[in-house]
Design a protein that fits this description.
Blueprint (H helix, E strand, L loop, with lengths): L6 H18 L1 H4 L4 E2 L2 E2 L3 H29 L20 H20 L3 H30 L8 H8 L3 H23 L2 H8 L2
Antiparallel strand pairs: 1-2
Helix pairs in contact: 1-3, 3-4, 3-5, 3-7, 4-5, 5-6, 5-7
Length: about 200
Amino acid sequence: MKRSLKPIDLTLAGMFVALMAIGANITNIAPFMVVGGVPITLQTFFAVLAGLVLGSRVGSIAMVVYALVGLVGVPVFSEFSGGVSIILAPTFGFILSFILVAFFTGKIVEKYKSVPAFIIAALIGLAINYFVGTNWMYFAYKFWFAVPKAIPYKVAWGWMMVPLPKDIILSVCAGLLAHRLERTVLSKGQFKNLKKAV
């Protein structure tokens, strides 16, 4: 039987919802984070971190809440957008992928606690993000955006090669940061007691 969510779970989930909103629009807040014309958004970083830090259950719940908050109209998606119409956007697949990213990264580190495991989990999360998001984008352009002479599948993946290096670096950083937090904060003292509290 699943344990009920504790106040600390709800607090941390809410914190990651806020971090996702900030990560989606970080270049509006910090324009210097556009490098070579490529915006260094932090959504994937925070989705990976949510799974690594909160675990599969609470991490994926946080991502579900983030998606729902945006779908009801709160401007938490990129370019301060929101609303149900975003479902038809080519990038909506990436938003959906964040739920799976948090779930699977969390599952891995719930079982394995080494530094390599955290990094591998983060990179698997990134792969899930790219797979779901890129395929949604491709089918969006092919079927309901009716782009003339629909883009080849390999072109859709070619577009993703531009942000890939920074996402790999950020995912590795997420793995290292989460492991550090696990060793120094999450499994120690008062925080651990809060997680166990009824």
